[in-house]
Design goal:
The protein is mainly alpha-helical. The chain is built from eight helices and two strands.
């Protein structure tokens, strides 16, 4: 699943990077405005998409979803916590996502730091559809 998480991140970074580039190009005379709007958009992208739907475009393509301990989308607050941690552990300009990959590989629940701080999990969507013993007896 680490590969799927990586692939989803790459898809999101390409999407977001392209958006920032296009905004900067479209606002030639006011490129700072375009870049500022792009950066704000990038910062809002993860909390909104993951918080409300549990998925970014990259996660949707790879069949993954962010959930809380109940299997529901985590909400904006937890998604913000994940996003703040992402700035360091998944930053392509720092260590290229190596910190996130190491933590995911070393934790038994396959969580990166953002997930640990926010108490969230990245799971395969198809796994959510399977009934569990705990859900049967709820």
């Amino acid at each position: 699943m680490l590969f799927l998480r990586w692939a989803g991140t790459v898809i999101d970074l390409i999407l977001l990077g392209s958006g920032v580039f296009l905004l900067a190009e479209l606002s030639n005379a006011a490129w700072r405005v375009g870049v500022t709007i792009g950066i704000v958009g990038v910062m809002a992208y993860y909390p909104i998409t993951e918080g409300i739907w549990g998925k970014t475009l990259g996660k949707a393509v790879t069949g993954l979803m962010v959930v809380d301990e109940n299997g529901d989308p985590p909400g904006i607050g937890k998604a913000c916590i994940r996003t703040l941690a992402r700035l360091v552990e998944v930053n392509p300009f720092l260590l290229g996502g190596l910190p996130a990959a190491l933590v995911v590989g070393l934790t038994p629940t396959r969580q990166r730091l953002g997930d640990l701080f926010a108490n969230t999990y990245v799971v395969r969507v198809r796994e959510l559809a399977k009934p569990s013993v705990a859900r049967v007896f709820d």
